[in-house]
Design brief:
The structure is a single chain. This protein is mostly beta strands. The chain has seven domains: 224 residues, no CATH class; 63 residues, SH3 type barrels; 79 residues, Immunoglobulin-like; 76 residues, Immunoglobulin-like (Sandwich); 84 residues, Immunoglobulin-like, CATH 2.60.40; 82 residues, Immunoglobulins (Immunoglobulin-like); 84 residues, Immunoglobulins (Immunoglobulin-like). 7% of the residues lie in helices and 43% in strands. The strands form 16 sheets. It has a seven-stranded antiparallel beta sheet. Strands 19, 21, 22, 24, 25 and 26 form a six-stranded mixed beta sheet that branches. β34 and β35 form a beta hairpin.
Amino acid sequence: MLKRTLCLILSAITILSVSVCSVATAAEPEETTAEYVSETDDGIIPYVTSPSDGQKPIGPEEPVDETMALLASLVKKFPAGKYWNHMGSKTNSPDTYTNTPCASHKGCSWAEGACSCNSFDRSIQCMGYAHKIAYDITGASPRDQFKKYYTLNVNNLRVGDVIRFRNNGHSICVTGVSGTKISFTDCNWDYKCGIRWGVMDISYIKSRGFTYVLHLEGNDRKNTDLYFFEHLGDYEEKIPENAEVWVMSDSNLNVRDKASTSGKKVGTIPAGSTFYVTEKVHTDDYLWGYVYCNGIKGWAALNYSEYESGIWQTPDITNAENEYVGYKLSFSWNAVDGASYYLFRLYDESKKVIKQFNVYGATETELKVDGEGKYYAKVYSRSKHNSSWVLGGKLITFNVKAPEPVKITGISLPATFGMAYGESKVLEAAVEPADNTEELKWESSAPEIVSVEDGTLKALSCGKATVYCKNPDGTVSASCTVTVTPENVTNIAVVAEETKTDCITFTWNAISYADSYDIHRYNAETKKYVKIGTSKIAKYTDKTAEEGHSYYYLVRACDKTESGTFRGANTKVKLASRPPKVTGLTQNYSSTGKIRLVWDEAQNATVYVVYKYDSANKKYIKVSLPKETTVTLTVAPGEGAYYRVYAATKANGKYLYSAASDKVYTLAGPEKAVVTASSTNKGTATVSWDACTNVYRYYVFRYTGSAWERIAILRSDVTEYTDTELKSGENYTYRVRAVSKKAGKASYGAYSENVTVKVK
């Protein structure tokens, strides 16, 4: 029995070597000298001998539950006396053990394969092992999900907690709690990664440099039978006899309390583990199974695992014939519950895969083989969630024989067929009967113009050729006249620098073999395209275009051959001449720091470009792109400047500009005056303001009750005005406006704020 085996192995261990376990950090030093202690000295009652007649289990008996079953499975998974390492392999293997102790811990880190020690949860040796056991019990990472406590209270300990002691030098995982004692498991006490299961008094931990406890919040597992190792058989899982055997792939699998991705997680099936399935349902696009694994029971998605044995569906081909006559074959197979799609494979006589494809939404397929012979076929069911779920059906064998020949009795082709130079096209032949087994023969009367292979034509030069399609002995045939014309003209674009108001110059991509190009223009009156010229080069100037107009053109390439001139398809494009010069430019409004320009509409203009003369740099600069024939600009108060406007139209992605308008001088309104008013003498009111820059005159206004009346025009050096002959006790309201004047042009600033004064 396992109990006796464990006892015999561990009873041979009389001296336990104590070491400091490495943690997942290269900076932490390792001890090089082992400390040797006796069983009494280290405070441990190990699982090496059976209890004496007078020794009783500590604590009350506990009924068999999932915690006990889980612990029993872990004792089997990591037996006492074995070694938690991967000696003899370079691959980290935290779910296995070996019979060989570690030879050296030199160069160890938690990185996979760094030394012979196993690693888990970014830790190795005692810490990695304790974290691994805690993870198998709780399904959570101690490093990332457990909470750290710095006090040790036996009443708060639970199965799966990790205790760190010996001055942060050793880790153990709690497997049971009763009174002042705990059962535990650890490794590397012997400095060779040896595995132990034992019992320890809590006082010993406190006396040996207790550091911290890692605890998963909500974990309430508690085992009071500290000698459960004596009764492992009582706790082993009882798997139903009809259970199927499944094997987990290379990742962990969550177990939930219901068959749904929204179910609560109740445990984890480690990668590579064997588990059992007793019931299956198909929901949420998953195949769910009720599983048993190491004391864990619940629902898991089987899409992420592989079926090993038991009663289960396989996609067996059901309609295969021993012998097929003809090369078109059809197959159907049994559906597999939960399969997302199927993989069909066809093998040749040597069982080499010659065809492979996926089948979605069906359990049947058709295919064609290349010839006679012996073939094999097999279907696999696949899951869209994980391709590792592959259930293969039976491999079937069948033979294929060539069909009896069926001769062609009729062939028809279109009378004519058009192609562009350099183009490839398939010429479809209608053949009777449709199920004939003869191969068609194709010929071209001028292969230098049109080549043909299995009905695929390729245009090699401009001209005409006759393509023939025949049966093998030439007794049945049809023909088609194929005309090859130049390819289409592309990238027609206006040459902006050569296009004037009374002409349009445009270019296109040259065609190397073309002799000339035809140019047509649309006539709006006749509603027809009229040829207006021919060009020997990929450029043309329409000198009859009027200013400010757009036109539609057709351009096509021509190739002159011995059998005639062949013209390509027309390429249509809309092009425009330059708009006419902008006229009527003037300033019609000014205010403080603002001017407004207006001008006459230019025919065919889509946008206008406003330029301002920069006197400092002695050049005009672009300041606005209005679409209308007016624009309001913000400038410095009292600023004077020259402006010009261009009309522009967009053609083929480029703007064509008109000639510049005549320049116009503008003057912005001066600053807005800041005004105050007072009355110090009877019958008078005095209005005052701050001096403004660039001022020619000041206008003073008084409100009459229904309108504003200008009552004074003052020089630029006057900033005060006294209004007389007023009625005492009455209120009077005033405002002031500054005026600029340059180059014979006057410009008005904004009105000041209104001020009201009561006259004495």
